[in-house]
Amino acid sequence: MRKGFGFMMTLVIAAMVMMALPKTLSDRINPLVQVQEIYAMVDQLGMEADGGGYLYRLNGYTPSGDKATVVLEVQGQLDRRALVRMEAKGAYVASWTVVDVEELPASARTRLHQG
After folding, report:
1. Is the N or C terminus of the chain more exposed, i.e. has fewer CB atoms within 10 Å?
2. How many beta carbons lie within 10 A of that of residue 61, not counting itself?
3. pTM (2 d.p.)
4. Domain ranges for the chain
5. What does the alpha-carbon distance between residue 7 and residue 16 come to, in Å, rounded to a whole number?
6. What is the CA angle 42-44-50, rounded to 5?
7. CATH 2.40.50.480 is right for the domain spanning 23-114
8. Distance (Å, rounded) from C-alpha 35 to C-alpha 53?
9. Mean pLDDT, the chain cut into blocks of 10 residues (115 residues total)
10. DSSP 26
11. Which domain of life, per UniProt (predicted)?
């Protein structure tokens, strides 16, 4: 009985810690959040980040057309209307690159040009 209670308390505390962390950090360390490919168009100027660089909150789409919101941190400003391919784990972006419109999956291309 005591082992079960201790295990449950550990789970509760771990869940509370995960909820208190910023979303990008909790997504980064959460083993249940899957890595996925996200395509987005830069539609704003980046906000200055604390440690230098710029932050972008981007609404993008997976290759199947599902919507996803991510936070991208870069060293310099990105061009407005730039198309970006990202490897994301929830809101956390692990890697990114600027791509041409021809490189977008059809469903992501359609969704980005609608919005």
Report:
1. N
2. 23
3. 0.75
4. 23-114
5. 14
6. 100
7. yes
8. 24
9. 66 58 64 88 91 91 91 92 92 91 90 76
10. H
11. Bacteria
